[in-house]
Amino acid sequence: MNGEGTPDEVLKIIAENLDLDIDFIKQRGGKKNQIIYDNQVAWARNYLVYDGYIENIERGIWRLTEKGIKSNLNQEQVILIVKKWVYIIQSRRKGIEIEDLDLSRFEFEIESSVVQETFELYSKEDFLNEVFISEQQYDKIAILLKRKKNIIMQGAPGVGKTFAAKKLAYSLMGAVDDSRMEMVQFHQNYAYEDFVMGFRPVEGGGFELRNGIFHQFCLKASNDPDRDYFFIIDEINRGNLSKIFGELLMLIENDKRGLRFSVPLTYKPDSRFYVPKNVFVIGMMNTADRSLAMIDYALRRRFCFIEIKPAFNTHSFKKHLPCLHVSSPIFQWEKDINFEHVGENFLPVSIDKKQ
Q1: CB 211 within 8 A of CB 268
Q2: What is this structure's pTM?
């Protein structure tokens, strides 16, 4: 149909694709004795118009919008769109405006119902081949993260904390799936409004209440409870943690996860929020910057701390050096340096094997 058609053409195409018999198509019902099939298609079309997939600029002609052309909706997504607008219409009949409704759960369900892509598999062995950490240390980190649900990797800058955190997440997911991973970096101006929820300026003036990145991530994870999600926080000790986490200071605890422990939020006391059990938090902390404040003890007890040390003296690092065509003097150079006591003006750097 080249992206457009009349209502009659659309009804005919749908009937042919679904192999509907003539008796079903002509069946009538309801208070006005309308043709049920025509009525159902009309409502579904309206919901797609409301959601921006179809437009009716020219009378009697329905066209796909740019959003509709680019989209490849599956049946589950269409059902979710219909459910969303049924909820909106029912709420309007009760006098509730659309601006006052929380539609985020529908949006994330629609997004998460996309047919799953094929991701590159990633195992524990892949992690050990790419990161200079022993198998024993890997097992310890994995067990602590699964049990505590929150860990902090601490170490000198350049030691490979960020690289190791991402690879750890991949290995526990079993695939290189960035859709189940989010990463942020804390700083002194980072706040609760960025992380959880807050008012943000909108184009044309005024403010609107928006969900923060962690709030959105938790909603996404809650709609996919059978798979693990990993939230990575770089420079976690650079932010004002009590100010950023707010109520989440309790909710991130491993024994306070799930709907049972949901609490009202500061900016939306009429709705409740919880951190799903399948969300794992990996923080990274720079131990070399002495200007940074100590981590709040209330938050400290909710994390397991993992020391990430330079790997220059490990067998795996020495084995990898010839692959980089590094000359032999570096072996003697690394023996002469005491990496257990890093000076203020020298910070060792671990090597990303992908480089």
Answers
A1: no
A2: 0.61
Give the closest residue to 214 by CA, choosing from 296, 165, 280. Answer: 280
Residue pair 299/169 in contact (Cβ under 8 Å)? The answer is no
Q: What is the 3-state secondary structure (H, E, C) of the chain?
A: CCCEECHHHHHHHHHHHCCCCHHHHCCEECCCCEEHHHHHHHHHHHHHHHCCCEECCCCCCEEECHHHHHCCCCHHHHHHHHHHHHHHHHHHHCCCCHHHCCCHHHHHHHHHCCCCCCCCECCHHHHHHHCCCCHHHHHHHHHHHHHHCEEEEEECCCCCHHHHHHHHHHHHHCECCHHHEEEEECCCCCCHHHHCEEEEECCCCCEEEEECHHHHHHHHHHCCCCCCEEEEEECHHHCCHHHHHCCHHHHCCCCCCCHHHCEEECCEEEEEECCCCCEEEEEEEECCCCCCCCCCHHHHCCCEEEECCCCCCCHHHHHHHHHHCCCCHHHHHHHCCCCCCCCCCCCCCCCCCCC
What is the percent of the chain where pLDDT is above 90?
28
CB neighbourhood size of 114 (10 A): 13
Q: Is 110 a residue whose pLDDT tops 70? A: no
Tokens, residue 310: 């330079």
In terms of DSSP bridges, do strands 4-5 and 62-64 run parallel, antiparallel, or are they unpaired?
Answer: antiparallel
Domain 144-308, CATH: 3.40.50.300
pLDDT tens digits, 122-158: 999 999 988 888 899 999 999 999 999 999 999 888 8
- Give the model's confidence band at 347: pLDDT under 50 very low, under 70 low, under 90 confident, else very high: very low
- Per domain, the residue ranges of the chain are 4-112, 144-308
